[in-house]
Write a structure and sequence with these properties.
This protein is mainly alpha-helical and 204 residues long. Helix content is 54%, strand content 5%.
Length: 204
C-alpha cells in the first residue's frame, strides 16, 4: 500500500499544475462547492494543507463551533489578492504532512473531491490514482457525516465500482466509476448523471 501522504502530495501538485494554465476568468468560474468559485476552492485547499490538530481546535472556537463558518473563515484567510498569489501559497504548502485529528485518508477525500470541484466546471480531465480514489471512497463511506464523511448516504445503497474491485453496502445497487460514486455520496449531484442502478434516486 502506498504511503497516503505520497498520494496527497501528488494530487496537490496535479491541481496546482491545472490551476497554472487558467485564465483570470476561469479562476472566477463557479465551482461545485455552493457559493465558492475556483479561486475560493484553491484557497480552501491551502487552508486544508495548513491544518493541524491544535489549529483546528482554535479555528472551530473562532467559528463558534460552526463547521461551515470555519471553512469560510479559513478560505478567506488563505485567499490571496490575486489567483497567482493563491497558487503560490498552494505550491508552498503542498509538501506538508499535517492535518486535523483524523486518518490521513481524510486528506485524500479532500484532495480528490475538491480537485473535481475545480475541474468539472472547467471541463478539465484528470487521471486520478486508482488507489487514492478507492481509499477516499472507502473512508467516506464508513465515516459519519458529522465527522465530514458520508456514511448515512452510502448505507442506503450498495456502491459498485465498475472500474475497480470495490463493492460497499447491501442496499439497492448504484453502479459507476469509483470517482463518481465518491462524488455522489459526498453530495455532488452532478455525478449522478454518470451512475446507474435502482439505488441512484436514493442518493439524490
Amino acid at each position: 500500500m502506498t504511503d497516503a501522504w505520497e498520494l496527497v502530495h501528488a494530487e496537490r501538485a496535479a491541481v496546482a499544475a491545472d490551476l497554472e494554465a487558467l485564465t483570470d476568468e476561469q479562476w472566477r468560474t463557479p465551482s461545485l462547492c455552493a457559493g465558492w468559485n475556483v479561486h475560493d476552492v484553491a484557497a480552501h485547499l491551502v487552508d486544508n494543507a495548513l491544518a493541524t490538530p491544535v489549529g483546528v481546535v482554535w479555528a472551530m472556537a473562532r467559528a463558534r463551533g460552526n463547521f461551515d463558518r470555519q471553512n469560510q473563515q479559513g478560505m478567506e484567510r488563505q485567499r490571496g489578492a490575486t489567483p497567482r498569489e493563491t497558487l503560490s501559497r498552494l505550491r508552498e504548502v503542498a509538501p506538508r504532512r499535517s492535518g486535523p485529528p483524523a486518518p490521513v485518508d481524510s486528506r485524500l477525500v479532500e484532495e480528490v473531491l475538491h480537485g473535481e470541484d475545480i475541474r468539472r466546471p472547467l471541463g478539465i480531465w484528470h487521471d486520478y490514482s486508482a488507489e487514492g480514489v478507492e481509499r477516499a471512497l472507502r473512508y467516506q463511506a464508513r465515516v459519519s457525516e458529522g465527522l465530514g464523511g458520508a456514511r448515512q448516504r452510502a448505507e442506503r445503497v450498495t456502491l459498485h465500482a465498475t472500474d475497480l474491485d470495490v463493492t460497499i453496502g447491501d442496499g439497492p445497487q448504484v453502479r459507476g466509476s469509483a470517482l463518481n460514486l465518491l462524488m455522489a455520496i459526498s453530495g455532488r449531484d452532478v455525478a449522478l448523471e454518470d451512475l446507474e442502478g435502482p439505488g441512484v434516486d436514493l442518493l439524490r
